[in-house]
Amino acid sequence: MMKWLDRFYQKSEFYFALVWIGVYCAANSLANPLSKMIGVGSSASLLWNLALTVLLLTWIRKNGLTKYYGLCSSKIPAGRFLWYVPLVLFMFRNLWFGFAINFPATDTVCYILSMLCVGFLEEVIFRGFLFQALAKENIKTAVVVSSVTFGLGHILNLLNGSGMGLIANLCQIVGAVACGFLFVILFYRGGSLIPCIVAHSVNNAVSAFANKAALTAENRLIFFAINFVLVMAYALILCRTLSKEKNREMA
């Protein structure tokens, strides 16, 4: 497996990224109905995402790509990122309308662990593999494509048996594009995916305790608007703090 990944990666970083996006999305779409068949929510998702996390982390470390894909500390002081305070607000956004127990204990544990893996996988695949492959040619294109691709990937929640409605899914897609833009700026500016992985993972895991009963149509729109403004404002502030050299690259 490792040798095959090495050969594929050396042949084309871009197609390597696209295949991983496809594999990840397809497998997680099949995991929801499989978990229902098993009788334990998120159990199949956990097994798949944990296996994939171990595989990709092992492959990245084996090939000495940890720094290239941002699995290292940031080269920029935290103060330049406003000490990540806006990111902390984002991490716990799913509790803005209250706390609730939504799943049985076993299902909750499986869901949280699976979502922690998802945070790692999606950051490595979309911000690591895809962004870095495209950034070699054009930074601006890499930022846009990785952000939009990440957002559009969430359309699968409309088809994979998650029960999400059309309006909620559209809000999720637009919000994911904005979050993708913020995360890619964090990675590009600081050289580290760690803040993105932590924020993404915690945000996903905390959703297990979101008070969904309070998410009326009106509250959902309020949630979407506040989240969108917070994420985009933070991303644009970070864009303004880029060095002159990097600003020219993104212009």
Topology:
Blueprint: H1 2-11, H2 13-38, H3 43-62, H4 85-91, H5 105-135, H6 139-152, H7 166-190, H8 194-206, H9 217-240, H10 244-250
Task: Walk me through this protein's architecture.
The chain is an all-alpha fold and 251 residues long. 71% of the residues lie in helices and 0% in strands. It has 10 helices and no strands. Residues 247-251 have low confidence and may be disordered.
Using DSSP, what is the number of strands? Answer: 0
Oligomer: single chain
Structural class designation? mainly alpha
* Helix-strand string: HHHHHHHHHH
Shape: globular
Q: Fraction of residues in helices?
A: over 70%
Cα-based radius of gyration, to the nearest Å: 18 Å
Largest sheet: none
pLDDT averaged residue by residue: 90
Strand content: under 5%
State the low-pLDDT regions, or none. Answer: 247-251
Report, as a whole number of angstroms, the end-to-end distance: 40 Å
Q: How many helices in DSSP terms?
A: 10
Describe, in short, the structure shown.
The chain has 251 residues and is mainly α.
Observed structural traits:
mainly alpha, globular, 10 helices, 251 residues, single chain, disordered C terminus
